[in-house]
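hey m, so remember when u said the tokens were messed up on ur end? i reran from scratch. heres the input so u can diff it against urs
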Amino acid sequence: MATRIETARMTMAQAVVKFLSQQYVERDGAEQPFIAGVWGIFGHGNVAGIGQALEELKLEMTFHRPQNEQGMVHTAAAYAKMKNRLQTFACTSSIGPGATNMLTGAAMATINRLPVLLLPGDIFASRLPDPVLQQLEYPLSMDVSVNDAFIPVSRYWDRINRPEQILASLPEAMRVLTDQAETGAVTICLPQDVQAEAYDYPANFFAKRVHHISRIVPPAEDMHRAIEQIRAAEKPLIIAGGGVLYSEATAALSDFADGLGIPVSETQAGKGALPWNHAWNVGAIGPNGSLAANRLAREADLVIAVGTRLADFTTASHTQFQNPDVRFLGINVSSRDAHKLGSLPLVGDARATLDALREAISAGKHRTAAGYGDKVETLKAEWDRVVDDLIAVAEPEKLTQANVIGIVNAASGPRDVVVCAAGGLPGDLLKLWRPVDPKAYHLEYGYSTMGYEIAGGLGVKMADPSREVYVMVGDGSYLMLHAEIVTSLEEGMKLTIVVVDNGGFQIIRKLQMSTGTPSYGNELRFRDPATGELDGPYIPIDFAANAASLGAAAMTATNEGELRDALERAKGETRTVVIHVPVQKHASVPGFDSWWDVPVAEVSDVPTVREAREEYVANEKMERFYY
């Protein structure tokens, strides 16, 4: 006689919410729920399905309401980043524009290897009312909707056309989300009629499930080869990426660098892996890097890439490493990243691998020569003086962006977090911000997403309310997506938002002019009736008034004294603060001993473009193929 299987009858949407509420992760003995809650904007396509389920199961899953679907994905990803990818949110939307608004956030999450679960509403699986409001009528197939656009920006994608399909799809979604090597955006498309359909689900589908995150150490033979490389190197250099932070490997990295005498450079995602004043921290690497790191990189004979995907802003478009005998060692949970640049790959957890390497090498008492350490110390001291000069206020009444960074950094506490993503600020912050805590520097630069800053700051604050969060945002990014100020008030999560107003996209103007093209189309100006071009006066925008209209505490600071006073007053506020800081429009921080490949027009009637092309061709010859 067959054994009767216990079942629970519920709608597909109710089953999704119930299943997600029972997913946990564990690493190093610490267990926590994986899905911290659901963000969503309701509309036709999810209000009667997922929306109904969330209301009915509100004691099991917390719901958060944002102002924009793109913003909620940024908030979820920032939360996941702050939580070292051990916890995240799900995001639900209606069909059509509500769904496609999440595309940018999905791409950002996948590029940055951050877990986010997306649950967009979809068209009717039955097709009976076809076409429905907001439906894309694709002429070659009736099974295609706008949600198919998520396929290339998702690590896993599925569409649920029958309620029982979640029995296979949701466990696979969780496998990808919790896999440290494969994680990114996961998209499960939910047709609006199927969300409301009921099914007798096996009761054990809703049992508590713990996903264990193991610390994998590479095979012994691979470790032996790596040890030989390290012992043979005279000028090794470490690149610390985001994987160092996600693995909680900062202490292991410090011990490794100290014990073996190897300097550590940083990527945007890895900045803060060591305190800025650590003896072996030589600062950032690449086009936005320090003179210390970049000069050491040019001569390095071994580059140890830890937890980094080695993007072009790290490798200087494959020009940063010019030693003809340079070799690469990749330590990464992702096999693909570990193999890049022809590296000897160590596929494993950053913390466990660094500890194992250090213990094995220390048995032989290996350390780089004293002269190399002296060079590192000299270059580091030189770089520290450069930073001091750049952030020093020369004209108290006319602040530069570098001045603002220095003043905000000085006002922040050691555990406070700076958040940024796009424009000229990320490069300047990478060079100038001085964190002492591993989580004090939070930059989204894999996708450099304009509009991430405020929504991301909210995610950071929600992940750790004990920290003050300083959002540094340019006027261009602020104008793109500032509505999540309202969400921060709604959630009672105070942010201090510093709007650095330089009259438009000045970093792109600088890049444009470096390629020979005159200033064109990047500044925030009125159209001049006489010329017909956007080269009239700058458009005056009162960002403080805008923020105040949304409910934030708002201030304007036009000089050093006012900014220091505003930051001090902001500390006493309990709601989100926005400080509008106009700065010198064309004052920028220079680059140091690096290059970035931005192709220049091969043919042009503009003399400056032709000159820039000649320089570009000369620099392009430095690009190397490493294998």
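this time it looks ok to me. The chain has a mean pLDDT of 97. if urs says something different then somethings off w ur setup not the seq
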